[in-house]
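Try it yourself: sequence plus adenosine-5'-diphosphate, in.
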Amino acid sequence: MDVFFLTMGAAMVLAMHAGFAFLEVGTVRKKNQVNALIRVITDFGFSTIAYFFIGFWVAYDINFFAPVAELNVMEGGTHGYKMVHFFFLLTFAAAIPAIISGGITERVRFWPNVVATVLLVGLIYPLYEGMIWNGNFGFQDWLSANFGAEFHDFAGSVVVHAMGGFLALGAVLTLGARLGRYTNTGKVNAILPSNIPFLALGSWVLCVGWFGFNVMSAGTADGASGLVAMNSLLAMVGGLIAALIAGKNDPGFVHNGALAGLVAVCAGSDIMHPLGALFVGVVAGVLFVYVFELLQNKLRIDDVLGVVPLHGVCGAWGGIAAGIFGSTSLGGAGGVTFMAQLVGTLAGVAIAIIAGFAVYMGIKATLGIRLSEEDEHMGADLAIHQISANPEEDMQTH
Amino acid sequence: MDVFFLTMGAAMVLAMHAGFAFLEVGTVRKKNQVNALIRVITDFGFSTIAYFFIGFWVAYDINFFAPVAELNVMEGGTHGYKMVHFFFLLTFAAAIPAIISGGITERVRFWPNVVATVLLVGLIYPLYEGMIWNGNFGFQDWLSANFGAEFHDFAGSVVVHAMGGFLALGAVLTLGARLGRYTNTGKVNAILPSNIPFLALGSWVLCVGWFGFNVMSAGTADGASGLVAMNSLLAMVGGLIAALIAGKNDPGFVHNGALAGLVAVCAGSDIMHPLGALFVGVVAGVLFVYVFELLQNKLRIDDVLGVVPLHGVCGAWGGIAAGIFGSTSLGGAGGVTFMAQLVGTLAGVAIAIIAGFAVYMGIKATLGIRLSEEDEHMGADLAIHQISANPEEDMQTH
Amino acid sequence: MDVFFLTMGAAMVLAMHAGFAFLEVGTVRKKNQVNALIRVITDFGFSTIAYFFIGFWVAYDINFFAPVAELNVMEGGTHGYKMVHFFFLLTFAAAIPAIISGGITERVRFWPNVVATVLLVGLIYPLYEGMIWNGNFGFQDWLSANFGAEFHDFAGSVVVHAMGGFLALGAVLTLGARLGRYTNTGKVNAILPSNIPFLALGSWVLCVGWFGFNVMSAGTADGASGLVAMNSLLAMVGGLIAALIAGKNDPGFVHNGALAGLVAVCAGSDIMHPLGALFVGVVAGVLFVYVFELLQNKLRIDDVLGVVPLHGVCGAWGGIAAGIFGSTSLGGAGGVTFMAQLVGTLAGVAIAIIAGFAVYMGIKATLGIRLSEEDEHMGADLAIHQISANPEEDMQTH
Amino acid sequence: MMKQVTAVIKPFKLDDVKDALLEIGVSGMSVTEIRGHGRQKGHTELYRGAEYNVDFVPKTSLSTVVKEDQVDAVIEAIIGAAGTGKIGDGKIFVTNVERVVRIRTGEEDADALS
Amino acid sequence: MMKQVTAVIKPFKLDDVKDALLEIGVSGMSVTEIRGHGRQKGHTELYRGAEYNVDFVPKTSLSTVVKEDQVDAVIEAIIGAAGTGKIGDGKIFVTNVERVVRIRTGEEDADALS
Amino acid sequence: MMKQVTAVIKPFKLDDVKDALLEIGVSGMSVTEIRGHGRQKGHTELYRGAEYNVDFVPKTSLSTVVKEDQVDAVIEAIIGAAGTGKIGDGKIFVTNVERVVRIRTGEEDADALS
Ligand SMILES: Nc1ncnc2c1ncn2[C@@H]1O[C@H](COP(=O)(O)OP(=O)(O)O)[C@@H](O)[C@H]1O
Ligand SMILES: Nc1ncnc2c1ncn2[C@@H]1O[C@H](COP(=O)(O)OP(=O)(O)O)[C@@H](O)[C@H]1O
Ligand SMILES: Nc1ncnc2c1ncn2[C@@H]1O[C@H](COP(=O)(O)OP(=O)(O)O)[C@@H](O)[C@H]1O
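Structure, out:
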């Protein structure tokens, strides 16, 4: 039964990776679409390997290297619940490179990016994941003792999203902006997306899959909570409406606004009141629009899909918001404290920022991280994959 | 358990909204693709708000404004079954504007359309929904007393589809045809769809999601019925094959024919024999093709996606067909009468037609409902969203 | 409960048919996209009819022609478990023409192809399916007696994939290569795919749906096994990484490589150790790349999507691999023998090859199977469906 | 002598211009999608808060090769069919063509155009 | 003197024509996708029961600027490679070019073409 | 007399060339996406182990009709803006235009260009 439950959750979050892929395909220029697709599926592949052989053991001290007979997975036993739990949690872990991918796209080299994926999913992410979700290093106990509660992150606003989003900050800054994005004279050149329908498709797939991400985070079918489902729904809706208005009907903002709400609601979706969730979503939608514009146009950080504002900032907001709207005084279920949420969130953000710079600077110094100017100009599709997104058509017109 | 069951159903029907979006994106002209996408997701957003704050209360007298502690949703209680039930039923309610959207696309103004969405999902739809599915106003009792049975609409052939489809009639007629669609000299100008693969994608998503729509209408995992699944399958197949043949291999007809069968089978899918369901689907497929051509070319009603024939006519056919093929004499499970089905269906259709004209005429008179000629000519994408569907490419060639 | 379980499985495998459609749409030339879409959905329709009226009865001796009251499907009874089981197994059966479709696309006639579909899904496939999964004809008993175990094919590496893939061999050879593909002087002309993002979309849908294909093959929610899920995951990942490397970053190879791993893991996913599954996937990924190139470029067999290597060769490899990695000596759960797997696999492959030639040669001789040169040149879209994939755009530029 | 008359027009006027030309007996024409820059200004697109100016507007270029004595009629027909009176209606250019050959038959000049 | 030879041909003949031109020493050419109207008729599309006539057929326009003495050879090569004998094979137009400049070097006329 | 100056340039140089022309007072221009064959070679694509040579490279053709006395300035501006010094920078062709008409007003020649 619970195997069925988690399988559905895992399948839905697996589908989200297709969502990440299409969100990126739609946003990049046409000459980088193939690369976006291959990079996302390849990252998923190497994430699985890294998490299977190292990461899951780092976070939970579990591995699967005994013969099947000893793993107690057959019908008499647990039906392999641990295995499907691995699958489910892997789809979360693999979201880390999928998130970062959107920030570094259109200029990153292929294999060095795979190395980063392995390091992040095998080591960095499980480190923090284990601290929060497995009580490793006594961090949760310390929070409990000092701030009255553990850090509550039900479905990963911080563990997954803020972690991925702020890891991307180091990655994006290490890589630098795409050619021609910002001029020396201070001008900001717009680089237009190739395909809004693909962007929207990606967003829809992510929205739908997210209900697996959140509801199935309960772990067992009997633990599944309608509150989580309703809160996710309302935060999503709050995010999309807020981004629609703040973003003046812009398709990029609307479709990412729904995701902003979902990112923010993960942490407290099991304890907030639906009205609280709606409010959290609205704030996330607005936050996304303004921080996106701030980073891109004022701070000149070329985070292509806006993953720092989307996953980083909205994720951190979600971690903190759980401490506000989860409290009984605001109609929530309680059991959280503002300070524990704040400290837990800041710890995650700090680890992410530091690790992001460390990993990408390290790779830059050793393997090189960025495409040559010529390759970037030609596009990653032809440079790395020797094929364009619409080969039949491109052969005719180019 | 049932929370899990309904969550899956809700996620599947949520996905159907992406299906509505792509069916529309593929059918409209390229200059209106972005608008179609944004309108569908925005409608979903405001539907949620309207149904959460008003509609669900109108239909079922339930709201969620007490603190979490009092809502009895945590693990000891019902696990928030009511909440996920709200989510599930919302995805039905939100189908109303999604259906209408396909009829009024390419010329409707943005915010006036949102006002219509709120009125329809907050008031009109829940009114009839409550009458049928919650026994409000004693309508079902009256049917029982007079026609030997309640009106049986298992998964909403009439409550959702005929309602949406016939609401669209008033909307489409109030708006009028797209510029250049029909000339004064009596000529019918074809307006070609932009993208058949997107149209087909939308149809596939709707088909798959529909099994959530129908099977999960049982409400509980133990109530789930293989008969519903099989009947839905056979009606879908009947509809697509009939539309393929009647429509002479046309991709628009084939892919909508599958939906026509599914629309028609909703009402009686839990009581008809599979052969009955197959037949109901075949009739729906043929009906769709002929009524579509009649409306478009003879009656000169510019219902862009054909939602009146698809949801309206096939939905009404489904309501009535449940009274025919649900009877034991035709191998069905019985418990329905032809007259109750007929009267229930006609009541729904009448409410829809009247309300459709009332709401859209009202909005037309007060806010205005239609884009200016100039905006319609330029396309809703540039006019409302200042961006086209393929901005990178369009910047180069326009 | 189990009805819910299998409904989810059936819906997921139904979605895979959309995956087949888009994998094909993306790979063919633009002038054949509409035809690919219509052919896949039409094949699904006629498969349902054939399997409902004949095939299911051929394989399992079950039909549904009694009145509902006698079918014991209502709430007191089995909830129609058999019916949803039919639905689930139908989605497998319908995969046969969907697989073949990818090999014969761009040149096959429409209605003769439907005839082939009906013959294959109504007769040929259920024959072998019944032999393996229902013990028909005493084949399994004979294997048991002679080779120490029955032929184990948990989720259809051979029953579905090798069957479909090797049926396609006869179909492809009977049809011959597309015009201009190979010249008399021995030159191999490349025919480029139209749309890599659609190809990738198809692949992702297939990957996600596959977890329904494999996990739900257990048949009951309590039988669901985490081992199956984990093995499927690792084989998929092994396949994609291997194809990435062997295929030198090619998008076609990467996205099909994931499927190659999944094809191969079906048979033994319930008994192999995860490391065995990973290895089986890696081999499948490499096999796919090399056999594809061999067939296309050396043997000059114009199997457009590469379904013979993908489903045929990798499926056969999966059937045999279950006999190797399923054994306890390699950490598996045991209960299989290498010889039973080998003989069972070869039997399937032999039936497929013979039946493929018989059916397609027969149709060629009677109805004709191939488009006229002129139609093939114009494209199946205009020739058969009188419409192109992007009508609005094509009307402007053609 | 043969002349090529090339008209840069608004895309949605193509059908009208084509019909007008066929009416006066023009036997063939070739059409290309182009983008033009002139007095008519392009529009502005906005994406996620960033503005993009589209400096070119879509235009259609239609050209037909005719005998010299038809040139005036052709110009008149185009002006009649393509004009909206608004900026951006486009321009007509006349150039000299020295030789015309029909590929199918090898016919030359006036014969190749009939 | 330099001449521009422009050929309107069937799209699938482009490769053959290109090869034929390269063979006789043509150094460069430019190609545009166009749509043509002439004796060859367009097809009809049908969508959901409504008919659409496609009045233009896809054509490819290939043009090369050569020295005057090469014109005959170029025309011959095109006729040889582009002909199918069916209506719609297309036409060749020859016009005068007064000046040619190579952007990279500033070379003019014959030098710019070598 | 009026002349048409047509420049085949690298696509990413279009904005620079347009700006340079506007600066010297050119009032209008038309632009087409073309593909060119010349000394600059196309690239190779690889799909599933099969190689495809792309024989044409994407180019942009920009043409403007100006009065004869502006031709030298226009050529100079184009050379200045479109040159990268690498093979494939493109060519400029000058041809004679006998007549220009503005569709909107019917104005002819120099008036039609102002
Ligand atoms: N000097 C020119 N040379 C070439 N094409 C021109 C020239 N001037 C205008 N055009 C073309 O004619 C189109 C219409 O010109 P515009 O100045 O906008 O309006 P109008 O023709 O009404 O004066 C332009 O978009 C451009 O394509
Ligand atoms: N008078 C013309 N001016 C410009 N282009 C023409 C003319 N006549 C024909 N063409 C071009 O040549 C193409 C072929 O012409 P068509 O009459 O169909 O066949 P054919 O060249 O074999 O007589 C047309 O589609 C059109 O693009
Ligand atoms: N003889 C020609 N006739 C027409 N177009 C030409 C000719 N030669 C070159 N071109 C065009 O100019 C482009 C650039 O020419 P190329 O020989 O590659 O470089 P360059 O101009 O630097 O010598 C070609 O791609 C083609 O479009």
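One thing you can check immediately is this: Residues D 8, 36-40, 57, 59, 87-91; F 27-30, 63-65, 102, 104, 113 surround adenosine-5'-diphosphate (ligand 1) (CB under 6 Å).
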